[in-house]
Amino acid sequence: TDGAWVGTWRPHRPRGPIMAQFTTPGPKYSIPGTTGYLAHNPTKTKAPAYTFQGAKQPITDNCSPGPRYYVHPSITRNGKYVPPAQHICGLPKITTKVTPGPSEYSIDKADKHMYKCTPAQSMAFRHKATKTDQCPGPDAYTLPRLVGPNTAYPHASPCYSMKGKSKHNGFAEDLSKMLGPAAFPKVELDVYKKRAPMYTM
Question: Which PANTHER family does its entry note (predicted)?
């Protein structure tokens, strides 16, 4: 510490290592670098790091056909897409067959369905099954009556009934047997008129 003066300053022991004391590049390489992800300088901010991953090893269990089987773009999930197009081809081969001619058909029975004709009655023998049928005659049916109040389907006209004269209020009625006014109980006046004031002791 007590050295000779060099100019206006005296040499002294430095507080930390300096480059002048080393013959090699020295302590400047002891500072962590600012590139990379590992051993990065903690005083500097890190930039986004991107990793490059190598190709994956082929899976031994994979049994797909691989890229050599190229799927055409026209193959969709609904099947093969075929654009509308007109096919040009030659005339088909016509094989002639022996068919019946116009004279082989009879159109007489079809005239009544195609053209208007007058009604014609046909005559034929009675069917055998109708000879043994025992149908009921006209007198076997009973039609509902058409006259009276309770008919089946037509509207009934007004009906008036006649009966004897009632004995009540008749000329032969004995009025002496009727009840007089004294036969009925007396009704208090308070039932159908305003009640008078009542006083109790």
Answer: BOREALIN N-TERMINAL DOMAIN-CONTAINING PROTEIN-RELATED (PTHR21580:SF28), SHIPPO-1-RELATED (PTHR21580)
Among 15, 16, 13, smallest CA distance to 1 is for 13
Residue 125: both structure tokens together: 């023998």
Weakest mean pLDDT among 72-76, 94-98, 183-187: 94-98
User: What pLDDT does 2 receive?
Assistant: 63
Q: What is the DSSP letter of 139?
A: G
Secondary structure (3-state) at 33? strand
DSSP SS3 for 189: helix
Look up the pTM and report it: 0.16
Read off the tokens for 132: 């043994």
Amino acid identity of residue 156, one-letter, is A
Residue appearing with tokens 């990379």: 36
Per the structure block, which two tokens stand in for 124?
């034929």
Which sign does the torsion angle of CA 150, 151, 155, 161 carry?
negative
Task: Classify the C-alpha dihedral 20-21-26-32 as positive or negative.
Answer: negative
59: three-class secondary structure by DSSP = coil
Q: Residues of the chain with pLDDT > 70: what percent?
A: 84
C-alpha neighbours within 13 Å on the C-beta side of residue 56: 4
With contact defined as beta carbons under 8 Å apart, do 14 and 20 qualify?
no
Residues in the chain: 201
* pLDDT tens for each residue of 44-84: 888 887 777 888 876 666 555 666 677 788 888 888 898 88
